[in-house]
């Protein structure tokens, strides 16, 4: 693992030096984020910060990546998604244009053979997807790309959650003997942490869609390269657990909008970070709390890879209960949806009543 420390440091320092330059560029060309009733910030902020992450990552690729064709589909796809993000941060592209661009970027690694071809079930048999592997993989990449994009609502949130996920993927990929996913993950981690120095509360610059789309895309592809070829039980569940927080937030948003009969693309102020702030937490506390949740899911993923079938099953049940409690406590779907909390509250009231008698 020691040989990975220097590349991470180089990308970290590169990002640390490049981010202020990107900030000046964003202000100069008008790539700024205006405050409105849906956003938490109250002043005009430069965005486009993801460009610093991308450039730092590419510096690491240029300096440390061995001459191999394996990484080029990932790099090309990541570059396409970064360009889409840059254009959106400057020109404000429509949702349809961004979606088409995401599909194109997702197809690049899929065509090159990076696919979710099968899943492994408890008796160690494989369920092969066949031709369905292509749409399943494209869906996964686009879904995770947008999931990271959706949680980019507080200072340092997307960068921090992405760093936790990337670190976990890199460590597990290393333990599975996957040098490609490990090195790309480490380079991405260093680049993101360097930017996070300027992006953590109170932020001096936002990553914009350039950063959130690029990070989401790279993490989604890394999770495929790192785990889906593994013979581990429930191999596809590992990245799902690691990305539990953004997946939870995105899934809740979809359900919430369906329940309220609103378009899926319509923005609202009921995402996980919004809901936690409404509970009374400060901006900084909400970010740190979501970091801790992400760390819990990542730790669960690591434990999952080493658990027996029964242990893994119990862990999944525990995580599902945790997710349900998060949804009910924060009101992610609806403030009225809290079956477990109402049941517990009802029993408590009943016990109190009996004591009074």
Q: Which descriptors apply to this entry?
A:
4 strands
Assembly context of the chains = single chain
User: Strand tally, please?
Assistant: 4
- Termini Cα gap: 65 Å
- Beta-strand percentage? under 5%
Q: If helices are DSSP runs of H or I spanning 4 or more residues, what is the number of helices? A: 14
Structure description:
The chain contains 14 helices and 4 strands. The chain is mainly alpha-helical. It has one domain. The longest helix has 25 residues. It is globular. The model has no long low-confidence stretch (mean pLDDT 88).
In short:
69% of the residues lie in helices and 3% in strands. It has 357 residues and is mainly alpha-helical.
Topology (SSEs and partners):
Blueprint: H1 5-29, E1 32-33, E2 45-46, H2 50-64, H3 72-91, H4 95-111, E3 118-120, E4 126-128, H5 133-150, H6 157-175, H7 179-199, H8 208-227, H9 237-242, H10 244-259, H11 272-278, H12 283-306, H13 309-330, H14 339-356
Antiparallel strand pairs: 1-2, 3-4
